Automatic annotation (TrEMBL):
The keyword Signal applies. It comes from Homo sapiens (Human). InterPro entries: Serpin_dom (IPR023796), Serpin_fam (IPR000215), Serpin_sf (IPR036186), Serpin_sf_1 (IPR042178), Serpin_sf_2 (IPR042185). The keyword Ligase does not apply. GO terms for molecular function: serine-type endopeptidase inhibitor activity. One of its GO terms (cellular component) is extracellular space. PANTHER family: SERINE PROTEASE INHIBITOR, SERPIN, SERPIN H1. Keywords: Glycoprotein, Signal. This is Rheumatoid arthritis-related antigen RA-A47. Belongs to the serpin family.
Length: 172
């Protein structure tokens, strides 16, 4: 399973072959009092390109700075701040930073943007600027799994953005 997922990540991360901009990184932070098993460190690096780093969570400011600097570096400055707070813990923290910029097969018109509701939870919606367009796309409504699937081709149809939309907002 891990080898297959690792190969999928490597394939998807090939920005040139897929004609997308995608910066992805993972880092596992832990205090110096925590030792990760050697097999875990090796496997997570090999399959998921996950780095490991020691951090002092008790010094929140330094921990935040370290995490956010790593994310900014990983995404070429596109994500200068992945978190605003970090809990004081004796455990570990897994951080994933991802910047994705598709090069669309059919571009969105710059005027087709407006403020719409994004449901964070069933009871909490925030307004965010969203692009929208009308077109013909591969679409599937899975009644059994209670979700809709839409495929939007990216430039030169080398890859696609596949969006899974649940029928209802469910807590994780």
């Amino acid at each position: 399973v891990h080898a297959g997922l690792g190969e999928l990540l490597r394939s998807l991360s090939n920005s040139t072959a897929r004609n997308v901009t995608w910066k992805l990184g993972s880092r596992l932070y832990g205090p110096s009092s925590v030792s990760f098993a050697d097999d875990f460190v090796r496997s997570s690096k090999q399959h998921y390109n996950c780095e490991h780093s020691k951090i002092n969570f008790r010094d929140k400011r330094s921990a935040l700075q370290s995490i956010n600097e790593w994310a900014a570096q990983t995404t070429d400055g596109k994500l200068p701040e992945v978190t605003k707070d970090v809990e004081r813990t004796d455990g570990a923290l897994l951080v994933n930073a991802m910047f994705f910029k598709p090069h669309w097969d059919e571009k969105f018109h710059h005027k087709m943007v407006d403020n719409r509701g994004f449901m964070v939870t069933r009871s909490y919606t925030v307004g965010v600027m969203m692009m929208h367009r009308t077109g013909l796309y591969n679409y599937y409504d899975d009644e059994k799994e209670k979700l809709q699937i839409v495929e939007m081709p990216l430039a030169h149809k080398l890859s696609s953005l596949i969006i899974l939309m649940p029928h209802h907002v469910e807590p994780l």
